[in-house]
């Protein structure tokens, strides 16, 4: 008998009203010819991914949650601000179009680093790429040039939000796209410092 496997990641979430405002502000980009091959991310699926775990055995969820609780208790909430647009790996051959996030307190990078360290003891490989806090707006296959896309995000009246918790998400993969389910939410308390 095989154990159930879950596809998991850890993220922080901007508020839904900010994601809707961002979606409205980038709506004109959807009609640009150079972005015709884009698969746009719906606001409900936009998160600040801090650690992708991949496929894991269901029995590993509780130890993962314990690690997340340790990390969450080591950090206090902080204010994050939506900044401009960018692309991975480059504007000439973009695979991802993203909205950047300014994090003056360094919370998101610290969370990503601490998650790498804490979850490493459970066998999860550390991320090798530098952490860049962002919201994925669109994906391209094959890569597309996005150099003509404006770098600013106009029309978002309240671009700042507070990150005050971590979420352990499960991805449910479907032909029409993924659906995400929060398995656990852990408040950032700073009490474990």
- Quick one: CATH class? Alpha Beta
* Beta-strand percent range: 35-45%
Q: What's the SSE pattern?
A: EHEEHEEHEEEE
Rg, Å, rounded: 17 Å
Overall spatial form: globular
Q: Say which CATH homologous superfamily is assigned.
A: Cyclic phosphodiesterase
Number of strands: 9
Order of strands, main sheet, comes to 2-6-5-4-7
Oligomer: single chain
Helix content: 10-25%
Number of helices: 3
Mean pLDDT: 91
Distance between the termini: 42 Å
Which class do the helix and strand fractions yield?
Answer: alpha+beta
**What's the number of domains?**
1
* Contiguous runs where pLDDT drops below 50 for at least 5 residues: none
Largest sheet: 5 strands, antiparallel
CATH level 3 topology? Cyclic Phosphodiesterase, Chain: A
CATH architecture title: Alpha-Beta Complex
Short account of what is shown:
This protein is α+β, with helices and mostly antiparallel strands.
Which terms would index this structure?
Cyclic Phosphodiesterase, Chain: A; 193 residues; globular; 38% strand; 4-stranded antiparallel sheet; 5-stranded antiparallel sheet; alpha+beta
